[in-house]
Amino acid sequence: MNYRSRFTYFAVAVLFMAAANGHAEQVVARSVIAQNITVENLRVDGPSLRGEIVNRSGRPVEDVQLLVTYDWQWRDEMKPGPDSPAWDKAILIAERLAPNEVREFSQLSEQPLATRGDGEFHPSVAVVGYTEFNRPE
Hints:
The structure is a single chain. The chain is mainly beta. It has a domain at about 40-130: Sandwich (Immunoglobulin-like). Helix content is about 5%, strand content about 55%. The chain has one helix at about 30-35; strands spanning about 5-10, 15-20, 20-25, 35-45, 50-55, 60-75, 85-95, 100-110, 120-135. The strands form 2 sheets. The chain has a 6-stranded antiparallel β-sheet with strand order 3-2-1-9-6-7. A 3-stranded antiparallel β-sheet has the order 4-5-8.
């Protein structure tokens, strides 16, 4: 018999608990997600983005969902252009992370990062979901 419970946090900050006898949902603040799983040492090298995710929850986690955003900052924010090249992409880190484990990730841009005189990209990464286990396995 499986006694573990699973918690799944999503971008809408909804928690799913999968127990042996059913499912329950509960709303969780984004600050809880940001406190439990962090993105650190973010580095940008041309079209390549690298960083580390750290499990600070005290429980094993898996299926960490990241949202990579390439925001576009206009040189003149008072007069932005008509075509912002900003975009984002979701990444899934499916492997299990033990408590306090650090896991590297990388993302190669699928779109060319436009070199334009009217602004520049500002990439960022946010944790938007993960599955947390109640008991270590």
